[in-house]
């Protein structure tokens, strides 16, 4: 793996006038600059169709930072002056010639050693065109490294992902492609490996002898909002499960890598994807259930149903909730269900992982009415970041009785330093040539293969939507999915 400690690069952001650049990329670049992780040798080129000049673009970047600083004056000119704008239409050859000229000039001014990062913050239909044009017009062949960062969604099924990958791979090698899954940049998702591989008490018990089931939840209280057009074509299983949920599952289930290096970690994750038991379309209902929210209440305020949010969503059959049971057919995990659930307009906004350990073989401290709570390891991914271990200990009542207690560690309290945002870490990793927390094509392909047969099964039947109230915990069928195995979902909040 090529590595360098002090990033030097021209970062070109295609789609620099868009939402992602504004909300995530500029603030992340600012934080990297503010924390001294990038300095003199980085310049940023914004590229989009709007006929902006450098000054307009810098004002736009400034606006994006307003929740990071108290006043505009605080944003140093030394930071803003490294942002440049080139008006481009990515389908037009002349755009690439102009861009090449600007990049070459900046490479000299900022002494970036000819390193180039092309960040595609644009609709996926442009990914192939941009990659091929970067090659055709020589932008890919700088004096240093060239890396291509690609946003999700990477296809909408396996054939479309394969087609997109072929287009991108005609121009770039796999080692140059950094497919973003921003969950992999989250502090607590990166912590899964450390918790597992640096602690004997978990490392030794992390298997089907001691773990009864694992639950991964990512719930949102928001609805679809202005992303409705994209979301309605995608749905929860494509938007969340194919990428973020399966990536967390892979980190929870993989074998320890022999080294913490990109290829080693990826190859262990790929083995997990290969071991996931495929779900036959005709049996989909046994393993996966879907839902769509009806009208309800969030924080005491009435909210509309999905279908009422926009006229384009009337009579839509797109799922806004999905829960599933995934089995991993390998020696370590045979017989342990991994349950996942994700949904919009749920009662709580949270992402968390609950590892439920098997109970003691004999229940000494509880009678039949009073049930012994199993030990749980809870990894809070967001909004709280931390770890909680649920144990049983002696209660201070007379007699020898046990009661559940919690050992908690919250990262939010840690040294009052806020954890870097996922995008911040991933941008830096990319500049340093560390692709560990980006997804390899094999992971993308195997996860689409798994998801495609679920979608195929769903296409055979018309869903009865809406089937859960906005502000609830999702459809009743999600509870039954676990109950038939003798389990139940652990709460999303206060656990
Ligand atoms: P967006 O707000 O619609 O921005 C799209 C950008 O593309 C704009 O800057 C637009 O600028 C530019 N553009 C469109 N056609 C162009 C052309 N022919 N030539 C040059 N530029 C063109 O989209 P977004 O929300 O930022 O999303 C960008 C990508 O990130 C998508 O793949 C999306 O799925 C992914 N993503 C977004 C988010 C998010 O939170 N927004 C989260 C995860 C993933 P002009 O109109 O000025 O050309």
Automatic annotation (TrEMBL):
Annotated Glucose-6-phosphate dehydrogenase NAD-binding domain residues: 12-191
Q: Which domain of life is it from?
A: Bacteria
Alphabetized Gene3D superfamilies for the sequence:
Dihydrodipicolinate Reductase, domain 2, NAD(P)-binding Rossmann-like Domain
Q: List, in alphabetical order, the GO biological process terms annotated in this UniProt record.
A: glucose metabolic process; pentose-phosphate shunt, oxidative branch
Residue sites binding NADP(+) per the record: 49, 89-90, 152
Write down the chemical reaction(s) this protein catalyses: D-glucose 6-phosphate + NADP(+) = 6-phospho-D-glucono-1,5-lactone + NADPH + H(+)
**One MF annotation (Gene Ontology) recorded for this entry:** glucose-6-phosphate dehydrogenase activity
Task: Write down the PROSITE patterns for this protein, in alphabetical order.
Answer: G6P_DEHYDROGENASE
| Residues given in the record as substrate binding sites | 182, 186, 220, 239, 344, 349
Q: Broadest EC class?
A: oxidoreductase
Give the SUPFAM superfamilies listed for this entry: Glyceraldehyde-3-phosphate dehydrogenase-like, C-terminal domain (SSF55347), NAD(P)-binding Rossmann-fold domains (SSF51735)
Protein keywords: Carbohydrate metabolism, Glucose metabolism, NADP, Oxidoreductase
Listed under GO cellular component are: cytosol
| Enzyme Commission no | 1.1.1.49
Residues forming the Glucose-6-phosphate dehydrogenase C-terminal domain are: 194-490
> Which pathway does it take part in?
Carbohydrate degradation; pentose phosphate pathway; D-ribulose 5-phosphate from D-glucose 6-phosphate (oxidative stage): step 1/3
- Which residues catalyse the reaction? 244
Function as written in the Swiss-Prot or TrEMBL entry: Catalyzes the oxidation of glucose 6-phosphate to 6-phosphogluconolactone.
The Swiss-Prot or TrEMBL record describes its family as follows: Belongs to the glucose-6-phosphate dehydrogenase family.
What is the designated name of this protein?
Glucose-6-phosphate 1-dehydrogenase
């Amino acid at each position: 793996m090529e590595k360098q400690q002090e990033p030097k690069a021209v970062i070109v952001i295609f789609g620099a006038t868009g939402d992602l650049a504004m909300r995530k990329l500029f603030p992340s670049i600012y934080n990297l600059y503010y924390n001294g992780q990038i300095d003199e040798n980085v310049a940023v080129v914004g590229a989009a169709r709007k006929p902006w000049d450098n000054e307009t673009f810098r004002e736009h970047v400034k606006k994006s930072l307003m929740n990071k600083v108290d006043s505009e004056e605080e944003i140093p000119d030394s930071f803003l002056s490294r942002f440049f704008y080139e008006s481009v239409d990515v389908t037009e050859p002349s755009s690439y010639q102009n861009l090449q000229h600007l990049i070459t000039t900046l490479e000299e001014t900022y002494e970036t050693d000819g390193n180039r990062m092309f960040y595609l913050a644009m609709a996926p239909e442009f990914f192939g065109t941009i990659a091929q044009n970067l090659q055709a017009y020589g932008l890919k062949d700088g004096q240093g490294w060239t890396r291509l960062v690609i946003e999700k969604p990477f296809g909408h099924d396996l054939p479309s992902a394969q087609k997109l990958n072929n287009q991108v791979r005609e121009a770039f090698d796999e080692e140059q492609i950094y497919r973003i899954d921003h969950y992999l940049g989250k502090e607590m998702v990166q912590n899964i490996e450390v918790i597992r591989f640096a602690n004997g008490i978990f490392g030794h018990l992390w298997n089907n002898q001691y773990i009864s089931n694992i639950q991964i939840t990512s719930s949102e209280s928001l609805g679809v909002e202005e992303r409705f057009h994209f979301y309605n074509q995608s749905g929860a299983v494509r938007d969340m499960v194919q990428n973020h949920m399966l990536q967390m599952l892979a980190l929870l289930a993989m074998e320890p890598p022999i080294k913490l290096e990109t290829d080693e970690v990826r190859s262990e994750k790929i083995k997990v994807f290969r071991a996931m038991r495929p779900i036959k379309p005709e049996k989909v209902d046994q393993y996966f259930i879907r839902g769509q929210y009806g009208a309800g209440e969030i924080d005491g305020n009435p909210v509309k149903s999905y279908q009422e949010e926009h006229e384009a969503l009337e009579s839509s059959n797109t799922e806004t909730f999905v829960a599933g049971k995934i089995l991993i057919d390998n020696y370590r995990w045979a017989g342990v269900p991994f349950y996942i659930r994700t949904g919009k307009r749920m009662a709580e906004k949270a992402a968390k992982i609950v590892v439920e350990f098997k109970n003691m073989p004999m229940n000494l401290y509880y009678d039949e009415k009073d049930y012994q709570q199993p030990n749980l390891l809870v990894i809070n991914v967001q909004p709280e970041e931390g770890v909680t271990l649920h144990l049983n200990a002696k209660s201070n009542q007379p007699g020898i009785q046990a009661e559940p207690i919690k050992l908690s560690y919250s990262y939010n309290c840690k040294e009052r330093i806020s954890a870097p945002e996922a995008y911040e870490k991933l941008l830096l990793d990319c500049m340093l040539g560390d692709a560990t927390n980006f997804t390899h094509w094999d992971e993308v392909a195997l996860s689409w293969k798994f998801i495609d047969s679920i979608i195929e099964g769903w296409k055979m039947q018309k869903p009865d939507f809406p089937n859960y109230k906005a502000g609830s915990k999702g459809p009743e069928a999600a509870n039954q999915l676990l109950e038939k195995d003798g389990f139940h979902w652990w709460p999303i909040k206060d656990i």
